[in-house]
Amino acid sequence: MPAGGRRRARRRAGRLRSGSRRAHGGPMTWRTTSSLHPVTMRQQNLATVLKVILAHGPIPRAEITEIAGTSSGTTTKLTAALIDAGVVRELTASGPAAGAGRPRVPLDLDTTSRAVLTLHIGVHYSLVAAVDLRAEQILQRQVAHSSAEAESVIRGAAEALAELRDQLSGRHVVGVGITSGGSVDHTAGRLMHHAELGWTEVPVRDLVAEQLGLEVVYDNEARGEALAELTFGVGSSADNVIALFVGSVVEAALVVNRQIHRGARGIAGTVAHLPVGAAQGPRCECGRTNCLRMVASNTGLLALARERGLATESTTYEELVNRGADAAVSDLLALRGRWVGEAVGTLTDLLDPDAVTLSGNATHADGFLDAVRDGMRAADPSRPDGIVQLATFGERSTAAAAAALLLDRYFTDPVAFEPGLDTHQAG
Ligand SMILES: [Zn+2]
């Protein structure tokens, strides 16, 4: 590792240590009883060592010691515990270092032993998946919503998750991460309101937890995307991030100094009614025609296409975007990107982030990123459009976002999820 990288890594490890219990804000209210234990120095060190392996693996013990700031004896004991538990594994040594000494055996997360189940509740269907400890996908399937009724949709999705679990032979499932659009009370695990689904006050977390008997974390989609970026993506070099989700809903999550900024009422990042320049879309429920949700969401785009004679009442979003070769459709898609870019410009002026990441199925259209950058520069050519990028996990980001909600807690307090780590006294 070059010296600069090592300095950055040390700074990061310092942050990990000082914030190890509340790395991303929010009270510690999840329901694992073992999470109520007082946190010992050993548990904090376990989390630090695990986060160093997450960020830098494969990595030999000597470098873990340097970055984590632990003694080499402590590193040896803690990595032995992580290996015995099956969370970390030794890779093949790359041979003795030049000169002499023992071979440097790199350690990495064991991505074959654990799984996280994920659920994204969409507007027309839900996506269920299983991912590994690096949020990489193992299995995925769509579940069509059989009704508009919240409880039956969620019970159906939980059944699909149970089926996925049965297919994960040999993997220990550490928990479930759930995302949806709309406003979510993440401490209560409840969906407060989702305009597009027409749902209010749904106890999403408890419905799934009852059915599966697993630890469940539930939050808004954009916040999951932001945590996935912090843990596995742009967070390696960015501390301030705007994660914008553009799909059936349009929502943002704001990350300030590596913490999700939730706001006084927990609704920070609600950008649905952000006015976008002179845009003329269908009339929003708020009465205006230039709300971001009406010109940039999939449903808004479809309505706009109908107004322009490019779609009929029965045309689906997928059918519309598949006609991207049609100049009028392609113009409309580029316009959508520029409107999103205008909103990104406003948000960037407010937060001055290191990075802006874009997720949701709008981002899959050809030329979307360029159109967003164009729109961002429209009001102010000096805006740093290079900070805008597509989500690190690309088209796999929906499952990664839901998994990140659970994995953030897992890496912050591994003992709560891996009881074997607490009793291990080897070394
Ligand atoms: Zn509106």
UniProtKB/TrEMBL annotation:
Q: Which InterPro entries match?
A: ATPase_NBD (IPR043129), ROK (IPR000600), WH-like_DNA-bd_sf (IPR036388), WH_DNA-bd_sf (IPR036390)
The record, for Gene3D superfamilies, names: 3.30.420.40, Winged helix-like DNA-binding domain superfamily/Winged helix DNA-binding domain
Q: Name one Pfam family in it.
A: ROK
Q: Where is this region: Disordered?
A: 1-35
Residue spans with biased composition (Basic residues)?
Answer: 1-24
Q: Which family does it belong to?
A: Belongs to the ROK (NagC/XylR) family.
State the protein's name. Answer: ROK family protein
